Amino acid sequence: MLASLTLEEAAEGLRNKKFSSTELTREINARIAKLNPGLNAYVTLTEESALKQAAAIDERFAKGESLSSLAGIPVGLKDIFNTKGVRTTCCSNIIRDFVPPYNATVVDKLEEAGMVLVGKTNMDEFACGGSTEHSCFGVTKNPWDISRVAGGSSGGSAAAVAADLAYYALGTDTGGSIRQPASLCGVVGLKVTYGRVSRSGVTAMASSWDTIGPFGKTVRDTAMILQTIAGKDRRDATTPSAPVPDYTKNIGDSIKGLKIGVPKEYFGEGIEPETEKIVREALKQYEKLGATVKEVTLPYTKYAVAVYYVAMPAELSANLARFDGIRYGSKPKAVAKDMIDYYYQTRSEGFGDEIKRRIMIGTYVLSAGYYDAYYRKAQKVRTLIIQDFENAFKDVDVLMAPVSPFPAFKIGAKKDDPLAMYLADVFTIPVSCAGVPAISLPCGFASGEGGKKLPVGLQIIGPQFSEDLLFKVGGAYEQATEWHKQKPGLA
Amino acid sequence: MLSNDQVQHIAKLARLGLKEGESGKFSKQLNDILGYVDMLKEVDTEKIEPTSQVTGLENVSRKDEVERFSNREELLACTELPVERDQIKVKPVITF
């Protein structure tokens, strides 16, 4: 079946004229039409323009042009990336009808590479959540068990790749929003080093944390995508001029002698025994491949969620202040009596509860008299968490841990308990604190009810700008195991 | 502890109009979250510098040159409010 090919296989088939981009696109469009009503992975479909983009690529291939490995391959983009002429909502009622007048830098880069955009994927409103339940378009269902969440906030992108509704997808990861849904849906997801990929044209959530990264079916696919989107951008001053290496070069190399650190704080209270067992099996596999595994300590781990839930809402509340219903976004239903009433009504109708909670926390911790006690304090503890990682990387090459303490949870289980939802990100947030990269890899299945299999992800964490190392280390595991080849039982 | 009145005040500062009964729901949830983050107080940070940028970039600058990346019509088409002489018409900011 064409839809189940990897990105690498699809790119090769296009070059060998086994099939055309139009055929790939028709196949994906048809599969979306059949499966998306049940999964809700996409919130906007672009079937027609995708076929036009595909036809243009087919013509260029026919002329013998040498094109990017992403050319002609159907992709889904999280609905937070500005796509010129295609509705971009952040899954919020406040900009439900917004059509951007320009592209995000990464979208420009994909277009230049020959993008075929099949649709925009579901997410928690403004990327705030871990389950896609906070979307104004409703929850995304997990392809492995539709009574469970796909994770979040990039749940639609993860589910789309897992269900073969796209060959690859992009998402954003601020506190775990790529790694956690990748883990819960059984696909590969990469959180890059802060600044590695331009954020220009991607709606800001928490600016000192936000990153953009790929979802793929394999490690190599993920490396190919990053190759296209990484690098300095004059429109995003946080992108450094650090060179972009050849990300696929070292995939397949031996990892003999690799030093792996296992932070003991990631295997403590709260992790489900089955998840722990599966992750420890993966560590044994690495020993078989010639790596050494030793326990390390990251003593400030337990404070990371607290740091995040002070600093992130502070930055979010400032970023979302621009949504006032004037230059863009929806105006209120009733007639406002004056300007301030207009703001109250616009923001009260437009934002969901989770956004309101975070804006209020952010407003509170930044207000006079509380700034030092909360925001500045959190930034100081963040320094200590960064030092934890720096110390660990003096001793080991990479760190390995679970992505999530448990597999996909039931829809509704945590929706009205914000704190319980926040604690689902306890193993991804410390990594975001330090701005280091991490990859989530399928490493086994926990058992759900009725014989259902629930994917579990292994998190591999490296020092800043070591994405090439993560691909090499992840690639070695993938070559030795079959987890990434398993597919959910969808018709 | 945040009282319902304080939650109302914060909502007002953030330009969020809360509906009847919402301040009670939010004050419980906000107090849960603030109670949780209180653990930061136990960390000794006296000699620790705060972090606001994690990769160490400083003073990134470029030439301040005008660049047109969308045209006026496209930008004005983003608003739902009336447009007059290329300006968006809003409610009075000051009322008497």
Description of the molecule:
The complex is a heterodimer of chains A (491) and B (96). Chain A has 491 residues and is α/β, with parallel strands linked by helices. Chain A is 37% helix and 15% strand. In chain A, helix 7 runs antiparallel to helix 15, helix 9 (304-319) packs across helix 11 (353-365) and helix 9 (304-319) packs across helix 12. The longest helix of chain A has 21 residues, at 372-392. In chain B, helix 1 (4-13) packs across helix 2 (22-37). The radius of gyration of chain B is 23 Å and the shape is flat. Chains A and B meet through helix 9, helix 10, helix 11, helix 12 and helix 13 of A and helix 1 and helix 2 of B.
Describe the secondary-structure layout.
The complex is a heterodimer of chains A (491) and B (96).
Chain A: H1 7-15, H2 21-39, E1 42-45, H3 47-62, E2 74-78, H4 105-112, E3 116-121, E4 141-142, E5 145-149, H5 155-162, E6 168-173, H6 179-185, E7 188-191, E8 211-216, H7 219-229, E9 259-263, H8 273-288, E10 292-296, H9 304-319, H10 339-350, H11 353-365, H12 372-392, E11 398-402, H13 418-423, H14 429-434, E12 438-447, E13 453-461, H15 467-480
Parallel strand pairs in A: 2-3, 2-6, 9-10, 9-11
Antiparallel strand pairs in A: 1-3, 4-5, 6-8, 7-8, 7-12, 11-13, 12-13
Chain B: H1 4-13, H2 22-37, H3 72-76, E1 83-84, E2 87-88
Antiparallel strand pairs in B: 1-2
Major β-sheet profile of chain A: 11 strands, mixed
By oligomeric state, this entry counts as: heterodimer
Helical content of chain A (DSSP H or I, runs of 4+): 25-40%
**Strand order, sheet with most strands of chain B:** 1-2
Largest interface: A-B, 69 and 52 residues
Low-confidence stretches of chain A are none
